[in-house]
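Dear support,

Our group has been running a series of protein-ligand predictions, and this particular one with nicotinamide-adenine-dinucleotide is the one our PI (initials K.S.) wants archived with full inputs and outputs. We had some confusion internally about which version of the output was final, so please treat the block below as the authoritative record. The input we submitted was:
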Amino acid sequence: MDSPPLTASVVGCGTGGRLSLEALSASPLFRIVAAADLRPEVRESLEREFPDLRTFGSHQEMLAHCPTDVVCVSTYPPSHESIVLDAIELPSMRGLLVEKPLADAAATGRRILNAIKSRNLPMVVPHGLRTRATSVEVINRVLDGEIGELRSIEVQCDKWDLLNAGIHWLDFCLAATDETLIASVLGAFDTSTRTYRDGMQVETVAVTYVENVKGVRLIVQTGDFIRVNTPGKKTLFRLVGTNGIIEFWGWERGYSILNAQYPAGEVIVPEEFPVFGHRRHLENLAMQIWSGTPEYRLPESSLTALEICEAAFLSWQHRCQVRFPFASFVAPTPSEWEPGKPYSGSGGGRDGRKLG
Ligand SMILES: NC(=O)c1ccc[n+]([C@@H]2O[C@H](COP(=O)([O-])OP(=O)(O)OC[C@H]3O[C@@H](n4cnc5c(N)ncnc54)[C@H](O)[C@@H]3O)[C@@H](O)[C@H]2O)c1
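Confirmed final output from the archive:
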């Protein structure tokens, strides 16, 4: 590699930020020089672990005193926008990593993406399944038609919620469907335990039912206690096609496949890529920077995944199917209609025996 390493900094150094910090320090393509975190104890431990790192108590201070080529935004979703907008003002800025979910609302996520695009800056969103040998091989097999025409992807996810983990699963589903446009979303959310996670209110248990314009169904069950129906698994993906089935288990290596080539079913464990996770995304960002060709397919998919999450929440809140494009959704007037209650014989409505 001829180009000198790109200088990099990280804002928000908790679990997500550390994945970026570790990836940057392991990669020869980067030199990690600065980090910002609100918490003094986090800054102290970073200084012990990364002796050459300069640390700051706010991103503004960091950007002013230690501008870098690349900034990784790893705070909670509600603060992503203001940090990104400040970072892209830096004359040194050449590319960004923005954590998933891009924002706490799809409209904000769209503003972030548009602001970055308007500067022609490369950007990555670190969805790990895009970088793992198992999930990448599953995507390729499905797109190559090895299980026939894809009909549905079912996801069962124990102990995690739609917005924080489900967004990775939805991004995977979009990749496995070649990012085919979404037609509609229906969501149901039990919130009885008032569970929160990663700075957000989340569901106790939920199901998100998505249909794309080709009729493929994406069914995602998330929540605090989900009984995954392959024993011993915490997360399950089941991809059903007209000529076969593939199942895999989130971050775990390996998948099972049943199709014409493997009529008795086979478990295949691909060798992991030498570089995966945040480092693979960041090195991909470096390539985009050096080639001068930003590629927005991944951030766009992440934004669609966020739209699906928000659509599911709105569907439950307004008791309606949310049709896409999501940006044109208008909430219906509230309805007193209660499925399962006797119809009084008056008061309007539509006769379901005369649908034509
Ligand atoms: N891609 C992944 O695999 C992955 C994994 C974990 C977390 N994440 C994402 O990372 C983000 C953060 O989650 P987390 O689990 O790291 O949370 P966390 O609580 O572990 O860490 C967040 C850190 O950000 C700091 N912080 C908050 N606001 C800040 C601000 N305005 N300026 C500077 N520092 C600030 C906090 O002090 C804290 O240290 C979320 O969007 C989460 O979804 C992604």
